[in-house]
Specification:
The chain is mainly alpha-helical and about 80 residues long. The protein is elongated and about 60 Å long. It has three helices and no strands. The longest helix is centred in the N-terminal third of the chain and has 30 residues, at about 1-30. It has helices at about 1-30, 35-45, 55-70.
Length: about 80
């Protein structure tokens, strides 16, 4: 009984780690326009250089960067 519980826990953790690693790639491939992907990939690489991408902080930073590019102001510049 204990061995089965440990095996289920290990499988659950493995699935969670796989989803955490794959989710950012799926989001980028499905939701980001093709012409924006290289810029977003470069930005995500600069924002988070750890082995496993931390999804929400990276996506918030990417969305803020895209908004600033679309509004025509610099990322750290004064707001209008």
């Amino acid at each position: 009984m204990i061995v089965a519980a440990v095996a289920l826990l290990v499988m659950f953790l493995l699935v969670v780690e796989l989803v955490a690693a794959i989710a950012p790639i799926l989001i980028i491939v499905t939701l980001v326009p093709r012409e924006d992907r290289p810029a977003l990939a470069h930005l995500l690489a600069q924002v988070d250089s750890s082995r496993r991408l931390r999804l929400w902080p990276a996506l918030r930073a990417a969305a803020a960067r895209r908004r600033s590019l679309l509004s025509g102001r610099s990322p750290g510049g004064p707001r209008r």
